[in-house]
Amino acid sequence: GIAHILQCKVPESWGQFTPEYADEARRQKFELLKNLKVAVDLLIELGCDINSPELVSMIDVLKHAITPNAEFSSMAIDLLQDWPHIR
Fold first, then answer.
1. Residue 15 in contact with residue 25, Cβ under 8 Å?
2. Which of 21, 58, 65, 67 is the most buried (most CB within 10 A)?
3. Measured between alpha carbons, how far is residue 57 from residues 12, 24, 30, 41, 65 in Å?
4. What is the pTM of this model?
């Protein structure tokens, strides 16, 4: 599912070919995280229970993205720093 896709790391060799590969990987990861955040916000706004297994799973993916070992974690921290559902 989406959680597995978002937690996958880009192979290190992809970023070794050219800086453009690393930039593209970073851009794609940002888009995935941003869209997941928007989806969570929308579902909550539509009245979905924040404690539902689906939302908890989505939020857990975003929480993982800001951990020190996560790929592009500083980018994820910037995206999610003021987001109330991470705390």
1. yes
2. 65
3. 27, 26, 18, 14, 13
4. 0.76
